[in-house]
Amino acid sequence: MAIPAALVRQIGNLPADLTSFVGRRRELAEIRRLLSVSRLVTLTGVGGVGKTRLALRAAAEQHRAFDAVWLVDLTALDDPALVAETVAATLGVQSEINPVDALARVLTGRRTLLVLDNCEHLRDACASFANRLLRAVPDLRILATSRQSLGIIGEHQMRVAPLALPEPGRPLTGRALELYDGVSLFLERASAVVPGFRLTPDIAADVVELCRRLDGIPLAIELAAVRLRALSVGTLVERLTDRYACLTSGSRTVAPRQRTLHALVDWSYQLLSPAERTLWSRMSVFPGHFDLKAVEDVCACGDVEPEDVLDLIDALLDKSLLLREEHHGEVRFRMLETLREFGRLRLDGPDERRSLARRHRDHYLALLERAAGEWFGPAQAGWFARLRLEQAHLRGALEFCLHERGEADVGLLMAALLYETYWLPNAFYSEGRHWFDLLLKSAPAPTAVRAEALCADAQMAFIQGDTAVAELLVGEGLALAEKLGHAKSLALGSLVSGIAAHQHGDYARAAVLLEEAVTGHTAAGDGLAALVGLLTLAATAGSLGEEDRERRLFERSLALAESGGDSWIRSWVLTVAAVHAWQRGDAERATDLARESLVVGRDFDDRLALATTFEVLGWIFETGRRDASAARMLGVAEELCRAAGASIQRVASYSESHERCVIALRERMGERSFDRALRQGERLTLDDAVAEALGSRLDERPDEGPGAEPDEGPDEMFGEGRPGRGERAGPEPSPLTGREREIAELISQGLSNKEISSALVIAQRTTEGHVEHILTKLGFSSRTQIAAWVAARKAAGGHTRDHDAIPRRPRRTR
Hints:
- This protein is mainly α.
- Helix content is 61%, strand content 5%.
- It folds into six domains: 5-159, Rossmann fold (3-Layer(aba) Sandwich); 174-262; 272-347, Orthogonal Bundle (Arc Repressor Mutant, subunit A), CATH 1.10.10.10; 355-505 and 514-519, Serine Threonine Protein Phosphatase 5, Tetratricopeptide repeat (Alpha Horseshoe); 567-695; 738-801, Arc Repressor Mutant, subunit A.
- The strands form two sheets. A five-stranded parallel beta sheet has the order 2-3-4-1-5, sandwiched between helices. It has a two-stranded antiparallel ribbon with strand order 6-7.
């Protein structure tokens, strides 16, 4: 069969761009790479994400690498049997023989790129056609677009993600915002609709919020830009509450299903099986990313069985209706808000929505109860990470309890569980008080949970310095606890009041209340609260001058934390012990304790605990005339307190120590140098701050006198001199073996001997022997000194050169 004259003359049919193409440089480079190693590349992604436009741009950029580039638009084709005929007709191939054979004859010997656009509704037919033609034509490349992969051997799938947007809460200037493809596309299309439209500071936040609410989906952003003919950006954001009613003005030249956001998403919905549609709509109950177990517990009911959920999720992933993410080594799923809202609209009215919301609440209540039961123990770090992942769901469950009739008491129970496992460890005091205040108003019944909630709310109010409100809350909580005879709430009330009395300097009263709290919590089996009471009682004993009792109580607190496997309160024990060691003039002991606290507690995000530790190190460094380092530590502490919405200086004795430290530093350094070093500390990342804290030592050469420039980085811990400005001295070669360096690294990450043995798959006795050798070789007496040595070598750039691979801390997940 002869090649048609039309095909000889024409080298393709790619349409010219009618609008500018924005961004996607990384994706275009990846498509080029994939086409160089694979003969079939399929671009997949949610509808409207820009697969067609990206494929056309990639094809246009590579047209010189091919003899011909052809676009076959399958949007309007409904009959799977006509796929091959449609391709042949597009290329101008007419023959009485099978169209695939005819195409093979025409294309053999020609380097051809075939773009098959919109394959999802003809998936099986497209897969069969592509497989046959690729086998028959060695020089053929196919670039397909589909919401689902074709699923044939040799296919390379590339998921097309929504356009990049700024992360929430990240402050950016107008010029920086325009570097994000999502924002840039909106500005391009907006200026076409409203000549002269530009990004100004007063609308920047609204523009980012608009693009974020639209999930960075190009079609949705373009539809939104059209609305600027009649609406301001701010008004448009407000109207996006119902995005499907708002975004309805698409181009009349495109297929009907691409003219409105609703039609676009409905196209995907109609291609699903009934079970897939049901699961999509039910998963709309999840406000954030979620795991498989949550879907099985919440969504598997009626016509969807738990054993079917995994296969259904896999199908929705393949069809680009779910996103797969990994968090701390765990697989989780997320639905774009645009798809989530569509699914919510497909639920069978308010009764089904209410039922799903209750199942959602029950799932996360059960999760919280398990977390609380295992919180004081070795699983604590895993639960800490897990609950942070579930933040959106925990808030959603509380919202349901708050607004659904008869559920406020359950919400108060959830809040009481969150207080100990989530709000306190994360220093989320404002959020905790917000929920407690709302739920206490909605659940006025005189219950034990209410008594406990009142006392918990009071503690966070005390932490934030809201003393008058806190005293009213704890007074009401204790009165209710006494009336009900509820021992746990009575003990909590005594604990909260005792801590407050200690912080205000009323040590005699604090001692009495804390003794009651420790006794009550111990009897109730609440080891964590008993430990907090014991720790504060130790500090109170020290303030009363009872040094022997103070030492015994600190030792008992530390032993209890270690035996229970707790890390969070253990870090507090070490910090408070460091304060008292420093107050007694034992700066070396105080330094070791504070540094160990950072090693133990840095996996947690208790900003108040970290701030207290950095504050104490500031006092210690000031005592040792390490003035610039001291000022930076104070800056770190100040920034952490600002983030936590609390202050270290709520403790009377801490406030006095802080003021003395600041006065001494200002006198020696001068105002300008002190302020500069303080600002440096405020700007340090937490990792850098920890590295500096672990890498500084008391016996270094003191900082120079008034007006001296603050040193620019972490001080060296070992070695006689310091590098000159702009230099970084390399460390001495390590005296440790490769295995010993591995173990030293894991010690610096806070792992116990048992955890190190598990990570390296060696016997615990072997680990203990290595630790002894490390201590002997380095001349150290504690694990904290080993951690500081590792940090110092990292700061000097030498630790990672000591060996090829440093083990990473094993993830602790549930």
